[in-house]
Amino acid sequence: MIVPTQAFLEIGGFNEEFRTSEDRELCDRWIHSGKTMIYAPEIIIYHAHPMTLNQFWKQHFTDGQGAFRFHNIRAKKGWGNFQIEGNYYLRLLLYPFKNGQSKQGISLTFALLISQIANAVGFFWEMGKTPRQENVSNSKLT
Prior knowledge:
With 142 residues, the chain is mainly α. It is 56% helix and 0% strand. The protein starts with a helix and ends in a 13-residue tail after the last helix. Residues 137-142 have low confidence and may be disordered.
C-alpha cells in the first residue's frame, strides 16, 4: 500500500489502538474521508518471512482479534456492517489452481484454510472477551 504522506496525516495516520488490522481500519477511514483507492495488479510487493505452524496460527489468530475490533469500531461510528465481496473466499481458494500452481495448489489451499480458521477463532475469542454493551457488532457480521 502506498499513500501520499499529507493525505495519510490528514486522516490521522494509523489508529494506535490496533496491533493488527491497522491497515484494514486505515483503508476504511480513507474511503470514508472521500479518498479513492486504486488496485494496481502490475505492482508486486513481496512480504514473506519463514514461520512455524504455531507462528502462522498465532499471526492469523491475532488478525482475527483485530478484525473483531475493526468491526466493533466501525459499528460504533455508525458505518454499518463491512461487506465482503460475494465470492471472495471461493476465488481465494481457487486462485492457486487457476494460476498454474496446481502442484503447490493443495499446500496453498491448506494454508489458506488454516489461516481462515485461525482468523475466525481469533475473531470469536475477542468477541467473547468483550462486554456485551461494548460488543455492538455481534450481530449481522458479514
